[in-house]
Amino acid sequence: MDGPAAHDELWWRDAVIYEVYPRSFADGDGDGIGDLAGVRSRLGHLRELGVDAIWFTPWYLSPMADGGYDVTDYRAIDPAFGTLAEAEELITAALAVGIRTIVDVVPNHVSDQHPWFQAALAAAPGSPERARFWFHPGRGPGGAEMPTHWPSMFGGDTWTRTKNADGTPGEWYLHLFSSGQPDLNWSHPDVRREHEDVLRFWFDRGVAGVRIDSAALLVKDPALPEIPADPGPGEHPNTDRDELHEIYRGWREIADSYPADHGPGRRILVGEIWLPDVERFVRYLRPDELHTAFNFDFLARPWDAAQLRASIDATLAAHAPVGAPATWVLSNHDVTRPVTRYGRAESGFSFAAKRAGTPTDLELGRRRARAAALLSAALPGSLYLYQGDELGLPEYEELDDDLRQDPMYLRSGGVDPGREGCRVPLPWHGDRPPFGFSPPGAQPTWLPQPAEWAELTVAAQEADPGSMLALYRAALRIRRAEPDLGDGPMEWLPAADGVLAFRRGPSCTCVVNLSPRPAVLPAHTAVLLASAPLTDGGLARDTAVWLRTSP
């Protein structure tokens, strides 16, 4: 595979994008923590898998209070991962084997160790340093009451009170996430200018795209009202404010200023946007704003044919008026892994419902995850794959509580089990931990790996033609080779209840059976790929198949 074609302006419309959580992908220096040297050593795996781009979760300097989403310096790589020079070398090395790089930015907040915030804490109320954040006097006698009662994304309060130089209680500062992640004030020109410079910094280094964390949260109503019981469009005080679109139009101008026929090609913007209002969601995807956005609705749906079809229809209908491609994703670094999730009685996903000790049938979950892989890869648009899902890794739910660092766990008092279960270091080879994640003689991995993962290593699955890895490699190879797959139209076909069947172009059909009975396959000339062996009775329950069909 050669490097990306320089003239390929539309690469992002049907790309397969692989999410790397650097702490848990591969450890090159033996400290038990994944790093850039480890990623570079495993580029062959990603090339063989058939991905078009890597999305790195934050690799910047950070105290890691929230897994790197608390950034201290966007222009420096955290020493746990390597150096800026290593990042530049990795971007170049990946591009040489046909893999572009997407980096994560977190514009809603920074770390409380960021120089701006440290300067703000040291400055007086009303100072220019504090104007970059949301410092505000408290309410009630002595200012002892928080300015608002907005809920936190991580549970708990969204305001923390400071101390004055003389030790007396001072102003409060806003943090929609943890207290270690103070929110920035996007009405301040310094904040806008800094992030625009950060975009240019990484685009100049050959990055092909930027994923925007919590993209709908940046702008707040300066009056700081409480959240209405049922806010109308644009009325929420801290989510989906209309002023956001001006910001992203400015970012799009920066992305478009880089020539599409140079280096990695067109630079793109990808939004993390959780909004129930579809019309508000697609406003971010207008031709002068973001290129794509994550499709969380599809990810969160249960393993149910009617629910999945409704999500697919709503997604495609929403994207059509703005001409943006849909994205399809089954999991990420925040979400319970599909093998575990699909094996539960309630197979959808929501943070509110995530609880420790929820029973799961891993055999059932694995069968459904295989079928879901073919379903999502056959849909029109781009595909996101979270590291380890190509191995069929389950959620690791037996972690000791004293190893859990996630603020979602800590701030909920342990009610929410947190997200470490999907962030356990990957198994590469061998019959015991660390399964090749680290070199021989290394420190223990930052999170322990379960011993039973010996059967799920890359090496073990490469030797098994029926493995999850073999399925993903075959699916992505066919997806790349078939002109009808990827971006483009789709047409639903008649099917029994509980069965999804659709045609891609004139010659490819996907059928997924979620019903309790075998499904009859449409007329076809060949089976391209199946998630489980076909039977004489047709397509078995919880199985998907790609067929070669005639128009």
Automatic annotation (TrEMBL):
Any GO molecular function: hydrolase activity
InterPro entries in alphabetical order: GH, GH13_cat_dom, O16G_dom_2
Pfam families tied to this protein: Alpha-amylase
Keyword flag Hydrolase: yes
Keyword Hydrolase set for record: yes
Domain Glycosyl hydrolase family 13 catalytic: 19-419
Keywords in alphabetical order: Hydrolase
Stored PANTHER family: ALPHA-AMYLASE FAMILY MEMBER, NEUTRAL AND BASIC AMINO ACID TRANSPORT PROTEIN RBAT
Family (UniProt): Belongs to the glycosyl hydrolase 13 family.
Identification of the protein by name: Glycoside hydrolase family 13 protein
Classification lineage: Bacteria, Bacillati, Actinomycetota, Actinomycetes, Pseudonocardiales
